[in-house]
Amino acid sequence: MKRDPVHEWREQYARHGTQLGFQPSTDGRFYSSVQAIFDVPRVVRMKLSPGLLFRDENMIRDRDDRLSLVMTQSSNYNIWHRRRELCLARGDAAVFQADAPGKSASATGLSVIEICMPQTEWNARGVRAGDFLMRTVRRETEGLRLLCDYIRSLEADGASFTTAARDVIAAT
Q: Domain 5-171 is in which class?
């Protein structure tokens, strides 16, 4: 049986959360990696070869209503979602909604850090995430810089956190 690396990536990414599809660019070799950084909230680092990442009408039938803050590590990261289009620069971020179709692409490869939580969790934190859907958060924004530092700390020390520490992180 012939190995399908795109299917393998989809299965690996879906184990960490949202069902996504991927259409690799015809140029170059396919590569991918998915690194779980934290479980609740779900924080994942993902890298993919150049191409188109998508969530279509069939995929949204899974009733996944999570909202994701996606911070791009790619340059010229194009996004189409909720009848809007954005082009994010390296380090910029935007909020997406899993219960709506969308797509993103980068000719240089897709590299993102995603923080994903159910809408009820955003609401419990007093955040009306819908107000932020498809709006660019620039990399120089102080809150985004602090969040990136926080994620780097989770990457470095996440495995060593106690259950009590994990509960505090999940609640903040």
A: mainly beta
